[in-house]
Amino acid sequence: MILDTLETTKNIPAPAISRLCLIYDTCVDLEAQGVAEISSQDLAKRLGTAAHNVRKDISFLGEIGTTGAGYATFLLKDHIGKSLNINRVRKACVVGLGRLGSAVLEYPILAGRGIEIVAGFDSSTNRIETLVAKTPLYPAHEITDIVKRKEIEIGIIAVPAESAQTTADALIAGGILGILSFAPGAIDAGSSGVAVRTINLVNELRIVSALMGTNAAAGSDQQK
Amino acid sequence: MILDTLETTKNIPAPAISRLCLIYDTCVDLEAQGVAEISSQDLAKRLGTAAHNVRKDISFLGEIGTTGAGYATFLLKDHIGKSLNINRVRKACVVGLGRLGSAVLEYPILAGRGIEIVAGFDSSTNRIETLVAKTPLYPAHEITDIVKRKEIEIGIIAVPAESAQTTADALIAGGILGILSFAPGAIDAGSSGVAVRTINLVNELRIVSALMGTNAAAGSDQQK
DNA sequence: TAGATTGTTAATCGATTAACAATC
DNA sequence: TAGATTGTTAATCGATTAACAATC
After folding, report:
1. Is A200 an interface residue toward B (CB < 8 Å)?
2. pTM of the complete model
3. What SS3 state is found at B124?
4. Which residues of chain B are within 8 Å of residue A25 when distances are taken between CB atoms?
């Protein structure tokens, strides 16, 4: 039975959501390759998890597979996409056009993966004028305005730590719905209800170092 | 009581390790700013967690704070650093020098944060010859050799999905101890014991989209 | 002393794993 | 039919939260 879409997302554990997004992505690839069916075991191998886990995650969304057969690639993709609302293209912008920011700005894969980057921002007018990009660029003080006008839904923050919160505030003021931040430190979304996620590159490298232990690590510990 | 350093890491939950690394980083900053003491509550605010959590995480490493007073910044940093073995500089390399890879190659902050990038690799000889970088660059087929010779401990993978596993195999053959991969898809480290972590940019954006829900997200859901 | 704050135990909450009946 | 595979319940495992005694 398919539960009410509006409600589902709330009750699904965050790690499960993360894996479901990976499964969605895998289905997109499989479809492109013309693979029409896939089993939970196969999916598990691709994600680096157990088949248990895959079936359980999928069943959070209600029944979809055919008991006894595998999952139909298209149906699975479609079902996850609708349930998690990731089956449409979202407009996004990048704030902070240093090396990392401009890499993301023109990240080639994004286009086919549900993200359309429609604007870039930087506080340096000089940089904006110098950079060659397909995407329109604007000075940082126009963030709120442009986000509102272009109805941008996702903001990607790639500015230095000091200006991360200010940037987030400007995005939120423009009505952004989600933020992905590369700045270290917590982003405070206040009571706006904006979804925030952080990628902390330095910390990820630290974690790898820690997992390596003193020298001989005890078994790969890939996070899920 | 301080537990045997060699043993500790194993018994600490992965999310706790992640937060401890963040705390370590925060202490580095605090020290630079001349702040000699900090409370669990203060740390919690900076990480975006609860004070409970901070104290619990720290106590996994054994006692260090003074009951009733806060934590001494230097001692805390030192203690976490020693316990998790993140208090020294690790040599790292970047494989794949596209936009993202070359951004990481010259990521300015890394130097002061325990990572020294000593080599870059790319399969395109042309790109290697064209790129201007402070770091020595090599063709991809020399990975195993150079990793061995330079005693590189961490490999950062920024190649397309198709070549990620091959790259990992080459790094592992060279005796790498840890891998941070930007490629989607699971990396199989076999029985090498190599620590692997993955940053999947596209998936993070998908997760943000999913958390945004249909439209009105129900409260910020920042991952810890 | 009084207020603040740590370290730790116990209780709750949540996620993963295992197992199996139902079904193709 | 027989083998394969899903969906789901129950059991285990693990992490977070709450609370409080010990201490500055």
Report:
1. yes
2. 0.91
3. coil
4. 184, 202-203, 206
